[in-house]
Amino acid sequence: MNRLKLVLPTPEYKEELMEYKREFIENEDSMDGTAGLRTAKTFKDWYSVICDNLKEETVRDGLVPSTTYMAISTNDGRLIGMIDIRHRLNDYLLNFGGHIGYSIRKSERKQGYATEMLALGLTECVKLNIKKVLITCDKDNVTSAKTIINNGAKLENEIPEGNGITQRYWITLD
């Protein structure tokens, strides 16, 4: 497909990232895979966190090392989505969060971007030597489940979480 490329955030993308955040907030939408962009007070604060979280030596307390990418349209350079790849799992991530979180802006949904972005993210997992990737979603989120399954995932189980149920999917990479 090659409609997207994964790009590490840099200060040059500040305006696009802030617009992405605004769209999610206006739509009262969940911002998965953004490494806390929604709650960051400033771009500088958020950027500092994602840079620190790249390495085990500098990861913020309570978090695991992760790499956050922007999914950029190869056609027009628009920020379509974001994906966060956690290099390892802690107890919470093993049960509920998984290795990967992602989101697509509402204005770009239902075009197959999530499936393509997740496939690109799995390529990055191979580079990180993650051979078995856990991806989770709410049982109500049928679209996300389809995206995960379209990338070769197998449902392992479902776990109650709060008022909902989390589905746990595994993808084995070569």
From TrEMBL:
It comes from the Bacteria. Residues 35-174 form the N-acetyltransferase domain. It holds the Pfam family Acetyltransf_3. Its EC number is 2.3.1.-. GO terms for molecular function: acyltransferase activity. PANTHER family: ACETYLTRANSFERASE. This is GNAT family N-acetyltransferase. It comes from Alkaliphilus flagellatus. The lineage of its organism: Bacteria, Bacillati, Bacillota, Clostridia, Peptostreptococcales.
